[in-house]
Amino acid sequence: MPTTDLIRSVRRFNRFYTDQIGLLNQHVLDSPFSLVEVRVLYEIFHAGECTSVHLQSLLRIDPGYLSRILTSYQTRGLIRKRPSPNDGRSQLITLSSKGKKVFEELDQRSDALIESLTGKLAGSGKELLLQSMMNIEHLLSPADKRALASEITIRTELRPGDLGYVTYLHGVLYKEEYDYDIAFESYVAAGLDEFYRSYDPAKNRVWVCERGRHIVGFLLLMNRGAAAQLRYFLLRPEYRGIGLGTKLMDLYMAFFHQCDYKTSYLWTTSELITAAHLYRKYGFMLAEEKKSTAFGKPVTEQRYDLRLKS
Description:
CATH architecture of the largest domain: 3-Layer(aba) Sandwich
Largest sheet: 7 strands, mixed
Number of helices: 11
Helix content: 40-55%
Radius of gyration: 27 Å
Shape: elongated
CATH class of the largest domain: Alpha Beta
């Protein structure tokens, strides 16, 4: 997408969202507080006790503006201050009983508006809205790999929509990253169909990685008689580098040993350098190479084998 189109889209969304927040402030909260003032109450309420320096850092607002808000709150009896026992120059701020009551009333009104805005959505619409908000937060926030990894769950059963979505992800990502044509998507669709038709949970397994209910990664082990085939190892770009690929390989190897397979293999292409490095880390060795134009461009297909030592 051209940068100018992205900028216009972000600005358009910002106007839309600002209008919604304006509705929240003007028509439902119906209070003398601005959104920033409500946010200050929110942070003090949830912190229990904090300093103005903490609030300034958290909210990224002008210290003079914050000071005026806090002075107003103190005059109205919404907050209390006391000297910090650890730093005589600092004051610890808490909400008074009146302040807590005011905040809780505002919080309830805010919840009621959000419910009125989203209550008309069907279940799938609510899930899409939630996932979209999570995606925006993730994409525009500073990277916190540990926090992101903790939000991902991995399930081992297939659900309606999985096969189609995993096929779609392969088609889109491999086109974007390696310029593979639609023949690759067709190849993935056929392989997933084969897997489903011969699926036996005692010898086959899927690992579906989700954040919320949005698929962000995938891997499967397919029974090939005495051997196990590793297939369709995929992570969305924004979920790479957080240890998820290693986690999936650990799960693959655990199931491989549990089923008492003696060998495993996979097919990849020479362009997938990072994936090949991970395969070698787990004992897979390059066994075969062949030139191909199967996916709309010249590629070098590679087979990696893993054989247990007897």
